[in-house]
Design brief:
CATH topology: Protein Transport Mog1p, Chain A
Structural class: alpha+beta
Low-confidence stretches: 1-23, 25-59
Largest sheet: 7 strands, antiparallel
Helix content: 25-40%
CATH architecture: 3-Layer(aba) Sandwich
Mean pLDDT: 75
């Protein structure tokens, strides 16, 4: 799979190719806006994000400084607006639509990668153990399978890997989903990087998902 080309370089190359002795302020402003847009496009995030977390058993909303991080957007995938109300800071969806037959009918799905953050955990181990227990306990009996669960180190950051197969309902039909999660923790903030597709389509998307998750790094 070809990695996404960093469009910042392309933008600057096109700008430098313009034969003007003294670039106008308008052109410089446009280029600056483009660069900022590109930084958001490839998943760079930093600064302050409002998160919901528990303090003394009372739910409160506070501002929490989030460690900046980056993740590779798979080539050909679309960047979708992240839902910050649930701590989502990046979301990519495959443009390839997978059609499956089930119970005499058909339905469509596509592969998804997203990054979510939270601030209610005390440590990496607390984050992983709580997340894993919640996933297992929340699944119907015999409908949740753990493929792998182990410590990992990615780009100098220690974390955990959790790979699962479970059932979920889509358009009133139960389908199996294959999901790969990377969990990290830094400066009091937990990072959950999820990549998933229908289990029947996993073999088509696995390489792209694993490559994207492996690209996650803290700045």
């Amino acid at each position: 799979m070809k990695n996404s080309v960093c469009v910042i370089v392309e933008v600057m190359a096109k700008f430098n190719a313009v034969k003007t002795k003294k670039p106008s302020r308008i052109i410089l402003l446009i280029v600056s806006v483009l660069i900022l847009a590109v930084l958001g496009f490839i998943g760079v995030r930093s600064g302050v994000l409002k998160l919901n977390f528990s303090v003394n058993k009372n739910n409160q909303q506070k501002s929490y400084k989030m460690p900046p991080s980056t993740i590779l957007q798979p080539s050909g995938w679309e960047k979708i607006k992240a839902d910050t109300s649930i701590g989502e800071i990046a979301r990519f969806e495959s443009k390839e639509i997978d059609t499956e037959q089930k119970d005499g009918g058909s339905f469509t799905t596509n592969a998804v990668i997203k990054v979510r953050v939270a601030a209610q955990y005390k440590s990496l181990d607390d984050f992983f153990n709580t997340y894993k227990a919640t996933a297992v306990n929340g699944a119907p009996e015999k409908q949740f399978q753990i493929i792998a669960a182990s410590p990992i180190e990615v780009n100098g950051s220690k974390g955990y890997l959790l790979e699962t197969i479970f059932y979920t309902e889509i358009k009133s039909k139960n389908i199996r989903v294959h999901q790969l999660d990377y969990l990290f923790y830094k400066d009091g903030v937990s990072f959950l990087i999820e990549g998933y597709s229908s289990n029947d389509s996993w073999s088509k998307h696995e390489a792209e998902i694993r490559t994207a998750l492996q690209s996650f790094r803290f700045k």
